[in-house]
Amino acid sequence: MKIINQDYKKGGTQKTFYELNDLQDINCLNCNSDKKSRVHTEFGNIGIVKCKNCSLMYTSPRPKNVELNYHGDKNKYYEEYKYIFNGTKPHHRDKNYIQELNIIKKFIKKGKIVDVGCNAGRFLHFAKKFGFDAFGVEPSKSLAELGTENFDLIIENCKLENSSFSKNSIDIITAIDVFEHLTNPLMFLNKSYEILKKDGILVIKIPNGNYCLTKLKIAKLFNKNTLNMDIFDSYEHVAHYSKKTFEKFINNTKFKIKKIYAPIPIHPPVWTITNDQYYLHTSPWTWDWKKVIMRKMFHFIGKIELLLRLPMYFQADILYILKKRS
Description:
The chain is α/β, with parallel strands linked by helices. The protein is about 30% helix and about 20% strand.
């Protein structure tokens, strides 16, 4: 959880406060019901709600044109990435990307991988090193160009639905921390089904909505001003899937769940503590040591939750390996 009243230099177009006229009311992304109950409010007037019909948590009202958050200034994005591009600093998610690729290797050793919402391509940079034939899809023109220019990648500047990939041509599709951004997830799944090979895999990693609820409860327990905290990333995340609601959603599609993992937590950098510029390389863990230790403790509990098939409230993210239904 981070305080959201900071004004620092960044590539994204998100704001710290949204007026009501910045937002639009939305029906459930799963069942289209308009019956919902309010769970939380953050970033001014953005709402986190729970569908009364299917129990999916989602963002409503949400920012208009929410998918354009990453369509920011190329030069500002370069400033965030510059130490990573020149090879002098590691990305704060490098360990996460390597773990995810090692998981993928358990199912497919080599082949054509398409990373959807690939940002500036750091995951694909490692995918190439792992021996995959790597391609990206990124709607943000600025980020797609940065990945092409600095990591020597092939990135199509579009959504997956508008990409040029042929039917049954892809071995692996990855959506790492992307699915929760999609305003039309069924369209994405249908296109994935179309271009995946018969024995291909779809890898989806989502933030756990129940983990966000746990953070919210802890913040309230310590009398924090939760209206002024970024708990759900609601300026960009349109849905907040739990293990139960995600699996319910997938069970009504052409995909089946092959395997579930509890990946290691992400430790966001905290460079804005010392300056007014946001960077993506790793910051000293001692600057944020309490949260780092808490995330690791919660991850340990989360692995136990998954092992014992319990509801997952302490695991920050959940990674799924999906295959086509026969």
